[in-house]
Give the backbone structure.
Amino acid sequence: MAGAGRVVAGSARGIGLAAPGSVARPLADRAKEAVFAILEPILPGAWVLDLCAGSGAAGIEALSRGAVRVVFVDRDAAAVRAIRENLRRTGLADAASVIRRDAVAATRGLAGEAARFDLVIVDPPYAETNLRATILAALGAPDSPLAPGATVIATGRWRSPAPERAGLLRSTRSRRFGETLVTFYRFDPGAVDADAAPGPVA
């Protein structure tokens, strides 16, 4: 397997990760370090969902920095093998679940689960231009598997900005790293009432 960089910080710091193939596009270590510096305060004790997980590098970084559970989702068999290998290398397998499934179907399937995720990482293939928006719409639905106030980060080409809103998700910031744009969202169930509230009576 090709390389997918290294774990930047935490209990598995410095361990090299395997990629599922030459087409894998993991975040560069510099970008990963910057993104996880922003996420650092919410990671201890967090439940994390890593969609279109690829090598699993992002979810593994979260585990290394204190997340208690990560569910990895990818539809590709090679990606699932790489994730399992990387969990073995880092010794973090006991805190992880790996699901081979389409990201949208997995999100909808998790909607009825008792667990509510504090952080979701969405890193779809750039060539599938509509997939990011479809995943965000599923995550922003009223029956989403997200905890109130959860954070979602979504990656894509910087020339194709992510939507500012997706259901109950609201964009809070964006950061560009070369060709990659990382957009941060907050899940706000209270937005249903706010959006539906009547205007003032004349």
